[in-house]
Amino acid sequence: MIRPRVFLTVLIISAFLSTIAPMFAQQPAPQGGRGGARGAQAAGAPAARGGASATRVPLFFREEWSNPTNQEHPLGQDGVANSNLELKLYGPSGKEILIAGSSTNETNPPHPWTGMCTTPCGLTLRDKDRFVDLTGLARIKWVTKMSGFHQVRPIIKLADGTMLVGDLADGSPVDWQEREFSLSGIRWIRLDPERAVTTGTFITNPDLSRVDEVGYIDLMPGSGHGQGGWSDVARFEVYGRPIPRQ
Fold first, then answer.
1. pLDDT digits (tens, 9 = 90+) for 150-200
2. pTM here?
3. Contact 110, 102 (CB under 8 A)
4. Cα separation of 209 and 241, whole Å?
């Protein structure tokens, strides 16, 4: 039999160990040095995202268009609300793009309309003082509405004059929709600005660090008034790093 004194000693030690064990279990993991972040990664914790490629880029320009007459008429420089932007029209029927809508009608805001284009047509906007760097997390946000099978695609003009169109097509015939998308991962193909058609093959990793113009194109002719087919683009925003032209 266990003597009473020995038995009492065992009970005291057991109680003491049960008291201090949780204290050791709750101690935080060591910070810094070899047991800090590197140790956490070794244990399977995800590494923090960072670096220049993960830096959010600023708004480069926003265009919401202007239609003082509230009547449809050919789109010109007077339809551009941002005074620092220059309008460029592309395609044989680029000059057939109209400005439509009204600033007082939220269901029909000012916007370029391609319904009267008899060929593919598009447009770009050019900042007077700056190129834009569209690498990294550069992105575009636009508000669009389509009819029929029409969709719009982003187009850019590089500093060396090369024009490219992206493989991202967007637009819904249901209603105006806002969409924001990254330019990273988009595949680009050359665009003939005179005919507004694609040429050649896809270009591998084009240099988007100095872009002169940014816009969109509808690669289908319009069908006139009615619901046969056209594209509308209202608010148009570009996010990228400004690069002085000098």
1. 999 999 999 999 999 999 999 999 999 999 999 999 999 999 999 999 999
2. 0.78
3. yes
4. 9
* Dihedrals phi, psi of 12, to nearest 5 degrees: -65, -45
Cα separation, 118 vs 130, in Å, equals 33
- Tokens 């220049």 -> residue: 52
Q: What share of the chain is helix, strand, coil (3-state, %, to 5)?
A: 15, 35, 45
The span from the CA of 169 to the CA of 218, in Å, is: 9
Among the listed residues 104, 94, 103, the one whose alpha carbon sits nearest the alpha carbon of residue 216: 94
Bridge partners, residue 179, by sequence: 142
Two tokens, residue 16: 């003491």
Strands 177-182 and 241-244 come out as unpaired
d(CA 96, CA 115): 9
